[in-house]
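Exercise 3.2. Students should predict the tertiary structure of the chain below and write it as structure tokens, then compare their answer with the key that follows.

Predict this chain's 3D structure.
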Amino acid sequence: VFYFMPGLRYFSSLSNIFFGDTNFGYILLATFLPYAIFKLFKIYTNTKVAFILLISFIFFPIFENMGFRHFNYIWQIARNHAETLSITLIVIGLTFIVNIEKNKKIDIIKILFSIILFSFAVLARPNFFPTTTIFTLYVILILYLNKNYNYIFLVSFFYCISFLCLVHNIYFGNSFVLFADANLHFAFTERFHKLILDDGINIIMRQLTIWNPLYNIHRLIILIIILYSIINYKHNFFTYALLLSVISQHLVLLTTHPGGRYAYLAWFLTFILFVKVEHSNKTLQQIFIKTKKLLI
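Answer key:
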């Protein structure tokens, strides 16, 4: 039965066929992450904003604690962790589906490719399963609204790749384990309590403190701005899917490992959503105007 991240070992095996006993294949894949980020921001902002954010991501880590720094992802490759692999696949996948609501003609090849990337992202990092599932359901919703019912079956079938872990665990381990036998890392299990030697209330406080330390109070402000925009303005389906993915991934953090590399995706998606709502509705400007009126 799998314990460590199953997808990374298969990716490493494939990479070693071409690059020998090195991580060059992993590094090569990570070079696509900045381009995917640029393309994603370019689609729903503009080229200028996307370029500024790209430069910030690579050279100026202003938003590092939002999971927005390239060096951090390269460093995780050096440590042979799966976060970079999974997040890179997710971001590349998003570039293919972010604009499908506006397209009258559905490009099923691009959609299926994104679903395959989401599936392998789950294999690489199973705790990203909520996010990839939400984006897959978003694709299915758009296909349903466009009456592409045959494509819905194809999308569902290709997303089932993410359940190969279950097949492996049943066949080799005679155990019905969905992804990996890692329940030690769930904060509210008996095994975790025994490891931490603390009660439920203190563990909750511990999780919250690690999830967002006081010096990162600006991250909570960003979350509040996002919620303000979502409540007060109308958005497209992709924005709501992005919001659900942010909420689900933060819930995963609060119930497992709430900080470090485990938190990259949750805060990275939060930053993407913040840029999206700010660019669409000028939320900060609207808040400033309303606050000024109240003070006057």
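Discussion points: The CA atoms of residues 115 and 159 lie 6 Å apart. DSSP finds 16 helices and no strands in the chain.
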